[in-house]
Amino acid sequence: MPLSNHGNLDLRTISTKHHYSIYIDMTDENKADDKENWLRMVFKGNKVWAEKGPDGQLLQQNGRVRVKYNLSHDQEYLVNPVNLGSVDDLPKKLEKKKAPRSKPKEKETDNGSEKKNYLVSSAFLDAGHDPDSIIVYTDGASSGNPGPSGIGVYFAFGRHEKEISEYIGEATNNIAELEAIRRALSEIKNHELPLKIYSDSSYAIGLITLNWKPKKNQELVAEIKKLVSKFKKIDFIKVEGHSGIPGNERADKLATGAIEKYVKKGT
Q1: 166-204 per-position pLDDT tens digit
Q2: 0.85 exceeded by the pTM?
Q3: CATH number of the structural domain 107-266
Q4: 164: helix, coil or strand?
Q5: Cα separation of 121 and 45, whole Å?
Q6: Annotated domain spans of the chain
Q7: Is the distance from CB of 208 to CB of 177 less than 8 angstroms?
Q8: Sign, CA torsion 220/222/227/232
Q9: Alpha-carbon span 22 to 6, nearest angstrom
């Protein structure tokens, strides 16, 4: 898929084509939130608003600080405070950068699923992630187990990102977890790049990496293993769910958000 319309991220082009622009909201206009509760700071080379406490210092929650790129937007991130710096350290040429074009609108499909594909500045990866690997966080959610279910997939490669938030119908949580991984693997076309997939599902990780024998969902597991075999180097990493890991938290919001949107649409 071409990147010229900034709608879909084709991971096949990332390692060879670097002339595409990354659109980052760095304007100070239309701030809806109260500026008195925020500090202007820099996160990974980009201006952000960082939440501060009554004492004027950064307000930390479980070792993370809430940041926004634009106070008028709902989107926010939890980041490591060590990655925040003073705006005085920002290069002057970056401060004079013109306002970017707006990012693409989200597309909604007929079944209520929502797919978000756009390029932004990474706010979900801490220092320490392998910059030469495609990083993927997956999560599945089910309301009722079984019940209305959704998947969330967050991709990152360098400064490129892609997100999928999709309603998958009535399913169990285990099916949603597996489907999120299957969807992530099927989206990546370049099998030569090293891939790291992070999941908080012990069930999914066990079936894929420990050769647990599936009592259910055999066809789905078999399809995942077939996709895995196409990659030159792939690692699955188990992470603790709801523990403040930015990529995992984002995947969770994408999965639960797909369910919420579907339910809201049906009421």
Answers
A1: 999 999 999 999 999 999 999 999 999 999 999 999 999
A2: no
A3: 3.30.420.10
A4: strand
A5: 9
A6: 35-95, 107-266
A7: no
A8: positive
A9: 9
